[in-house]
From TrEMBL:
This is 4-hydroxy-tetrahydrodipicolinate reductase. Catalyzes the conversion of 4-hydroxy-tetrahydrodipicolinate (HTPA) to tetrahydrodipicolinate. CDD domains: DHDPR_N. Residues 7-129 form the Dihydrodipicolinate reductase N-terminal domain. Pathway: Amino-acid biosynthesis; L-lysine biosynthesis via DAP pathway; (S)-tetrahydrodipicolinate from L-aspartate: step 4/4. NAD(+) binds at residues 12-17, 102-104, 126-129. It comes from Litchfieldella rifensis. It comes from the Bacteria. One of its GO terms (molecular function) is 4-hydroxy-tetrahydrodipicolinate reductase. The lineage of its organism: Bacteria, Pseudomonadati, Pseudomonadota, Gammaproteobacteria, Oceanospirillales.
Amino acid sequence: MPPIAPRIAIVGVAGRMGRTLVAAVEQDSNATLAGGVVEPGSSLAGADIGELAGLGRRGVVAADSLEAIVDDFDVLIDFTTPRVSLANLAFCSAHGKRIVIGTTGLNDEQLAELDGYRDRVPMVFAPNMSVGVNLTLKLLETAARALGDEGYDIEVIEAHHRHKVDSPSGTALKMGEVVAESLGRTLKEHGVFTREGQCGPRSDTEIGFATVRAGDIVGEHTVMFATEGERIEITHKASSRMTFAKGAVRAARWVAGQQVGRYDMQDVLGLKG
Ligand SMILES: NC(=O)C1=CN([C@@H]2O[C@H](COP(=O)(O)OP(=O)(O)OC[C@H]3O[C@@H](n4cnc5c(N)ncnc54)[C@H](OP(=O)(O)O)[C@@H]3O)[C@@H](O)[C@H]2O)C=CC1
Ligand SMILES: O=C(O)C1=N[C@H](C(=O)O)C[C@H](O)C1
């Protein structure tokens, strides 16, 4: 039987997503806020994680290592960096914990490393935890099948805040992959990530990516299907990080009842098949 209200710990608890995750766990009556971790040596170690999140004291202090809270949690939520998330995945595997990873920007080698844990840890790994984006992925599958081989050019455009360190976003890549797979293409072969100078006209089958980084944009993604005479755009706009955080808490509650395996938000939301 899965725990009724799994005890959730959050890594990167002082980050943009970390602080929002604290609030999301607090709002969920079926989840327990059990711990938070900041970077080793951080001056925020020992701070109350409710205060870090602007909620006031919650009586749970930030640790600067997972070892320090190993007995306190069932599921770890990690929105940090690829290197840190992989180390935390290894920790969860060694200690019989479950994990939800939202970190993006993993390279091929790091993705292969993460995949190596699919038979050892119950994990949810997804570049976007919002219900809206995951529904959008289903719409893209349908649109690509209907339009993609009928002379429609496909472009993925994303915009994020000025602090984002990876590009294109994990969500943009996922959208591109869904479209490519629906058409029997691959992003390795058909993805076009830069256009500059005399780069010539586009090919019929390429899938182009364009990135905006500016101000405080939370996250916006558009996939455009354009042909002579018409253009279809499927757009998702996030206006609050709470949409990602609520999805991550839902994933944590869900994975608390799962066997080992690598899952994504389509599994959590029952959107597969
Ligand atoms: N899947 C999804 O739905 C979403 C995914 N993301 C992804 O989540 C990731 C984080 O985004 P965001 O919150 O904006 O980034 P931030 O930089 O605001 O947060 C990351 C946090 O991780 C902390 N950190 C770094 N190393 C460690 C460590 N060893 N132990 C504990 N904490 C550590 C950082 O601390 P310090 O600042 O001290 O280095 C920082 O507070 C990105 O990859 C982003 O793309 C974001 C939103 C939604
Ligand atoms: O870094 C962010 O902020 C976000 N990152 C994710 C991504 O790379 O797709 C998801 C979301 O759009 C916000």
